[in-house]
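Recap from last week: sequence in, structure out.
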Amino acid sequence: MSTITVCIFARGGSKGLPGKNTRNFSGKPLIAWAIEQALTLSNIDEVFVSTDSIEIADVARKYGASVPFIRPAELAQDNSPEWMAWRHMLNFLLERDGKLPDAMLSVPTTAPLRSVSDIQSCIDSFELGITDAIITVTDSHRNPYFNMVKVDSDGFADVVITNDSGINRRQDSPSVFDMTTVAYVVDTKFIMKNDSIFMGKIKVVHIPLERAVDIDTLLDFEIAEFLHIRRNGTSS
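Predicted structure tokens:
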């Protein structure tokens, strides 16, 4: 069985929805849902949070997470690749423990509708040992072969992917999926040696649409909270 470290990466700044990670979602801060879901996993004793925000750090500790450092500001900008925050966390673990865990499980705050079994499915898939990373996907709302368009510099539209196959119905186009932020399980050596998750061998875990809402804007937040209240009968 692989050694897996669980991490939640939560920046203080969010242009789409300011204060997102500590915003009240159905009775508790949004980040609390990710922490509690991660702590429910079997064989998980500790959940790390990487953040640049003192407020987020305080909330994370309140709900049982470990916050061993405040992330450097240069790794928490709008244009800072989260990949570098992943490496920063792994370098901390390497210095502290003298070795890396086999894998890192990232549980983003932005998918509170996921189930613990969704996360466990990602771990189980990684344990098969034939991939560098596991990502989660859900059914796509649009298809670049059919009903997604791009607009050129002259203002004219065309489909994102042109083809000569005569496809004129979504049902006939190749299957595509939307990536979700439910969970990522990634080989730690792969993270340290590469610069992008798609430089490796990637497998997917499919998540139903009703558990795959990714919160980036206020509308996303309101939709997710509505679905959560309808499913659980709770309110904020």
